[in-house]
UniProtKB/TrEMBL annotation:
Name of the protein in question: Sigma-E factor regulatory protein RseB
Subcellular location: Periplasm
Main location: periplasm
GO biological process: regulation of polysaccharide biosynthetic process
Entry-linked InterPro entries: MucB/RseB_C, MucB/RseB_C_sf, MucB/RseB_N, MucB_RseB
Single GO molecular function: antisigma factor binding
Domain MucB/RseB N-terminal: 26-196
Family: Belongs to the RseB family.
Recorded GO CC terms: outer membrane-bounded periplasmic space
Alphabetically ordered keywords of this record: Periplasm, Signal
Positions of transmembrane segments: none
Boundaries of every MucB/RseB C-terminal domain copy: 220-312
Extent of the signal sequence: 1-21
Length: 336
């Protein structure tokens, strides 16, 4: 009995030392530890993604085999859906379409946020605040809030396991405090056995990597004159919609944590008007200007989407307005 009490005392002492050590570590340092652990450990996590009207159960496994990242995301309900990563190749299995592979170092899917993010980059745009300790999935966690410095995007609250440094929960929070989404771990394990399981991914036959032609440089007669600090633009894309035969131009912006796209097309109907729609994290803002329809779609608050849409300017329209102004000035001069 005495030995049992001594063992229990030593165990509590050990956990107290771990908690005390984490209490002295900064929020940013904890996020760095979380990022490193999620990219170097062999682990699996069963978790649920909770939205306003749905709950999605998921399983995520990760390992590193011969310096090569291996990962497998499985949707556990409904039609078979999977995402498989082998180093810089990512394959998607989706219902209704042929499986395909692309060259990429990241997976697109409902993975617990901030697993593969650049913390140093985010530190320029977000404040990291320690919120204290809590329990999640039966484990003691440090709770960190990731808050935008400008107040123009969403926040995250992340629960980091004190033992493994893995993220066990992440809440996406609106500026007014409303929780839009929750990723909550039900069970998890860290083991080299996960490596043995994922090694099989190296031997299964997956679709060949698609060769995606690099888009040709495209000049547009419009530009976005304002975006929140830190959002960087990708290449401009132009494509034709078969049903309406209309041309749409789009540009993707990302700050490393959230992203949105701006779409510009000719006005289909003179009755079109500005409207806004939001479902969970996703906002759709449409705006009519100079006989063009502007749409902003992405993971940003509605007020930010509206401001971005309002900032779109058309260089051709500006040029025409300037030309008309010059003609009017000349005519007025001739009348004097």
């Amino acid at each position: 009995m005495k030995k049992l009490l001594i063992s229990i005392g030593l165990l509590f002492s050990l956990f107290s030392q771990i908690a005390s050590a984490d209490d002295t570590v900064s929020a940013e340092a904890l996020l760095h530890q979380m990022s490193e652990a999620s990219q170097t450990l062999s682990y699996e996590m069963s978790y649920i993604l909770i939205k306003k009207n749905s709950i999605e159960p998921l399983l995520y496994r990760h390992a590193v085999d011969k310096n090569k990242q291996l990962a497998h995301l499985v949707y556990l309900s409904g039609p078979i859906r999977e995402v498989i990563r082998r180093a810089d190749e990512v394959s998607y299995v989706e219902p209704g379409i042929e499986p395909f592979s692309i060259s990429s170092g990241s997976m697109v899917g409902p993975i617990i946020p901030m697993i593969n993010t650049n913390i140093d980059q985010l530190a320029q745009l977000y404040d990291f605040v320690k919120m204290g300790r809590a329990r999640e999935a039966g484990a003691a966690c440090q709770v960190i809030r990731v808050v935008p410095k400008d107040g123009l995007r969403y926040s995250y609250v992340v629960w980091i396991d004190e033992r493994t440094k893995l993220p066990l929960r992440a809440d996406l929070v609106e500026r007014n405090g409303e929780v839009l989404e929750q990723y909550r771990t039900i069970s998890y394990a860290v083991s080299e056995h996960i490596t043995n399981i994922l090694e099989r991914l190296n031997t299964i036959e997956l679709p060949d990597v698609l060769t995606i032609p690099k888009p040709q440089p495209t000049l547009a007669d419009w530009k976005v004159s304002w975006v929140p600090n830190g959002f960087k633009a990708n290449d401009l894309n132009r494509y034709r919609i078969p049903i309406t035969d209309s041309v749409v131009e789009s540009q993707l912006y990302s700050d490393g944590l959230f992203s949105f796209s701006v779409y510009v097309s000719d006005l289909d109907s003179p009755d079109s008007k500005a409207q806004i729609y939001r479902q969970g994290r996703r906002t759709l803002q449409t705006f009519v200007k100079d006989n063009k329809e502007i749409s902003v779609i992405g993971d940003i608050p509605a007020v930010t989407a509206k401001r971005i849409a309002d900032s779109v300017v058309f260089t051709a329209a500006t040029s025409n307005n300037a030309s008309n102004t010059n003609k009017a000035t000349t005519a007025q001069g001739g009348q004097k």
